[in-house]
Amino acid sequence: MNIPFVDLVSQYTSIKDEIDNAFYSSLNTGEFIGGDSVRSFETAFSKYVNRKYCISCANGTDSIEILLEAFGVKKGDEVIVPAYSWISTSESVSRLGAKPVFVDIEKDFYCIDANLIESKITPNTKGIIPVHFYGQPANMPQIMAIANKYKLFVIEDCAQAHGAEIYGKNVGSWGHAASFSFYPGKNLGAYGDAGAIVTDLEEIAIKCKKIANHGQLKKHEHSIEGRNSRLDTIQAKILLVKLNYLNTWNLKRIKNAKYYNTRLNPSNIILPSVRENSKHVFHLYVIRTKRRGELISKLEKAGVQTAIHYPKPLPFLECYTYLESKQDDFPVACSIQNEILSIPMYPELAKMQMDYIIGIINE
Ligand SMILES: *Cc1c(COP(=O)(O)O)cnc(C)c1O
Fold first, then answer.
1. Mind listing the pLDDT tens digit for each residue in 210-236?
2. pLDDT of residue 268
C-alpha cells in the first residue's frame, strides 16, 4: 500500500464538478484579478471567523507582514513569537526591521507557553504573535490578559487552524487581528498561494487594504506607498466552494485523530493531546518517539510517507545565529525536535489506511 503524506487529488475528486465550474467560470468571463468573487469570499470568510473585516491577500506570510506594518512595527521594536513555528511567523517581524523574541512552547500542546511571555517583555515590545500550532488553539485567554496588561497587540497566526476554537470562540476572533494562509495543504487550501487578514478594527482593516493594494483605496489615489498582494479571482472562486466543506472536513480530521489516538499503542510513543475547552482541528497529527529514525524508515519501506514539522526550532535556524540563542532557554523546543513526527492526516484518509499505519507503528 502507498499512503501519501497529503492527498489533495482525492479531495478535488470529491467536489470535482463544483471546482471545475468555479475554475471555468473565471476562464469564460476573463476575470482573473478582483471582481465580485474576491469580495464574496472576503464576506463569507469574515462571517466564518466571526470578524467584521476580511482583507484577502496573496499568501499567509504576506498577511502577517501586512498586519505588522499596519500596527506600525518598525526598526527597534520587538515582537514575541513562539520558538516553534513555520519561519513566516518570525520572518515577517524581521522583514520590518524589528526583532523576533522567541518564547519556548508548552510540552503538552506545542503552542507558545503563555507563562513565559511576561519575562520576555521589554519597553520595546509591541506585540505577540501566538500560533495555533498543528491545529491546536494557543492559550488565548491568558495571552489576551497579558497583552491587555502591557498594551500589546496580538496577531493570531491561524495558518494551521482554520475552524479551531477555544472556549467556543473561533481562533482568529480573539486577538486584535489574525492572519490566515490558504496554501494548498492547509485545512482550507486554495489551488495555489492565497491568504487573508481578519480584524474588527476599522483603522487596521483600512491600512491593510491600502498596503496590500499599492496604497490606494480608490484607483490612482495613492495616499501611501504599498505593495501588490492580491488574491486571484480563480483562487477566490475555489475557496468559496471549499469554505462550505471546511467544517465537515475538520470533523473528519478530528474523527481520524480519535481513531489514531485510541488505537496507537502509547507505551513507546507520545500521542497528541488536546487542550481543555478546545477544538483542535488536526492540521497535522504529530506523535513523538525516541526511535524516530527507525520508525521513519520502517514506514517508508511500507509505502507510508511522513514529515517533520519542523526539524529545528526557529531560534536555531542558521538565519538566527546572530541572536546567539541558548538551548537552555528553550528546553521544550529542544527536547521535542528530535522526536516529533507527522504521520498522514487528512479528511479523506480511510480506516483501512489508518489501520495499516497503526499496525506498522505499534509493531
Ligand atoms: C503556512 C504557514 C504560514 C504561511 O503561509 P504561506 O501562505 O505559505 O505564506 C504562516 N505561518 C504558519 C504557522 C504556517 O504554517
1. 999 999 999 999 999 999 999 999 999
2. 86
Ligand 1: nearest atom to the Cα of 195: 7
C-alpha cell at 10: 482525492
* Interval 3-19 mean pLDDT: 97
Mean pLDDT over 175-202 rounds to 98
Query: Which residues contact ligand 1 via a Cβ below 6 A?
Result: 59-61, 85-86, 88-89, 131, 157, 159-160, 181, 183, 193, 195
Amino acid at 58: A
Report how far ligand 1's centroid is from the alpha carbon of 21 (Å).
28
Number of other residues whose CB lies within 10 A of the CB of residue 16: 10
pLDDT at residue 288, rounded to an integer: 98
Question: Which segments of the chain belong to CATH 3.40.640.10?
Answer: 8-103+110-243
Using alpha carbons, list the distances in angstroms from residue 69 to 155, 163, 212.
12, 26, 11
Q: What value does the mean pLDDT take over residues 311-327?
A: 97
Q: What is the largest CA-CA distance in the chain?
A: 65
| DSSP labels, 103-161 | EPBPTTT-SB-GGGTGGG--TTEEEE--B-GGGPPP-HHHHHHHHHHHT-EEEEE-TT-
Pocket test for ligand 1, best of 157, 229, 342 (most atoms within 8 A of CB): 157
pLDDT tens per residue across span 90-122? 999 999 999 999 999 999 999 999 999 999 999
Does residue 196 carry a pLDDT above 90? Answer: yes
- How far away, in angstroms, is 181 Cα from ligand 1 center? 5
Q: How far is the CA of 271 from the centre of ligand 1 (A)?
A: 24
In angstroms, what is the span from residue 301 Cα to ligand 1's centroid? 30
- What CATH class does 8-103+110-243 carry? alpha beta
101 forms bridges with which residues in the sheet?
80
Which CATH code is given to the segment(s) 246-362? 3.90.1150.10
